[in-house]
Specification:
- By secondary structure, the protein is an all-alpha fold.
- It is built from 4 helices and no strands.
- The two termini are about 25 Å apart.
Length: about 100
Amino acid sequence: MGYYEEETRALNAILLLIFTMQTDKAFAELEQSLHQLAFPPAVRHLCENALQNHIAAQSVLLAQPSAQQEVQAVSCLLLALESISGFKHIERYITQRNQISVCC
């Protein structure tokens, strides 16, 4: 398996749960992923911010979650997915470059 494949898959699954209106399940999955996967520090920070925004949105009004904080949580997750994708591509590039250097 390539670099950051599990982390990318986890973030994709979490975002899919959010977009299918399974928000509580998505953030439970995010919390579990933070304990199980080795996210790069910048991505971990974004995921933690997303979780904190979700928790804050839920605690503001239990009947009506804060839409702005939920939007901020999703924004953090999208940035995390973008970042992990960037890390994945950089690792692939370095691996390919190192193979070329060794072969030639």
